[in-house]
Amino acid sequence: MVLTVNGSGIQETFRFLEAKTNSGVWSLDFATRKMMWSDGFYALLGLEPGSVEPSYETIVELMHPDDRRPAGEFDRIVNEGLPLDRELRIIQPNGKLRWLANRSEVQLDKSGKPLRAFGVLLDVTPQRETALAKEAAEARFRALVIATNAFVWTAHADGQILDIRNWRELRGENPAELLGSKWVDLVHPDDRERTQQTWSEALASKHEYVVEHRIRQPDGDYRWVQSRAAPILQETGAVREWVGITSDIHDRKVWPATSEEAEGVLTGAQLRAARGVLNWSVRELSQASGVSSSTIRRLEDIDGPPPGREEALRPLQSALEGAGVEFLFPPSGKPGVRPR
């Protein structure tokens, strides 16, 4: 049964409002369990007006499985005259999914017994899709923050720090103690003036902020970090906020710039890893270095450095570095490899 409004002028106005607001109205008689739907209600379900008998069962058939009420719950709601307000997903016959929000009111008889309910169904799909997209973006941002293993921070247009992500996780300290301009106290005294000057210049020019400086660690030592930030601009060109990242570069700053300066001997593990970085076979490395394949295999069979002086290491190192590999010899820990 189609819910109508008396008067042709009122009917046209009613249809206009439903169409423009993507809404539909309904009513439910608690005694007979019969429903009435407006044209707009049918449209929200993706049905032609009058094509089916209005019923809760029809709505359930179109409802997303995860949004269906448990068996018997609707009868309990009707019997007790409880509100029917909720959000649900409808899968229209054409396969299109719509988010719908129901707003209702229960009418009671003189004795206070539930008599009937009236409601309006609103299409809130755009709002829900926007909210879901925002949630997904925030989830990706949180994952990115974790993956960077760095401090990600935001600052007000005037440069005052608003938030620092990963600070508690990586340092075990409360980031609230660094908000505003308190972070400056962590910067090494010798780097402080240069850091503040670079930050002031970035704020004034609205250009990218890049600086390398040392910050104090929880144990009192200092480590080199690189801080970078970029402004987020409003349509007017004014800065809405700054988003920055501070990453540890201490090893790069204190280790020798090249493996030639490092006091280390290539290990078999480094040779294997270097070939993996370049996706080279033993044969390809042999051709590039002039070292026999059997020698390369012998050296790679040992995870550490060879037991004696090995002349073949120099041409192997030269060939691999020439192809874009950098060998690392940290002051502590295992030697490493990375793309140059």
Characteristics:
single chain, 340 residues, alpha+beta, Beta-Lactamase, 3 domains, 5-stranded antiparallel sheet, 12 strands, elongated
Describe this protein's structure.
This protein is α+β, with helices and mostly antiparallel strands and 340 residues long. The protein folds into three domains: 8-128, Beta-Lactamase; 149-252, 2-Layer Sandwich (Beta-Lactamase); 268-339, lambda repressor-like DNA-binding domains (434 Repressor (Amino-terminal Domain), Orthogonal Bundle), CATH 1.10.260. It is built from twelve helices and twelve strands. A hairpin with a 5-residue loop joins strand 3 and strand 4 (97-108). Helix 10 (282-289) packs across helix 12 (313-322). It is elongated. 20% of the residues are buried. Mean pLDDT is 86; it is low at 257-263.
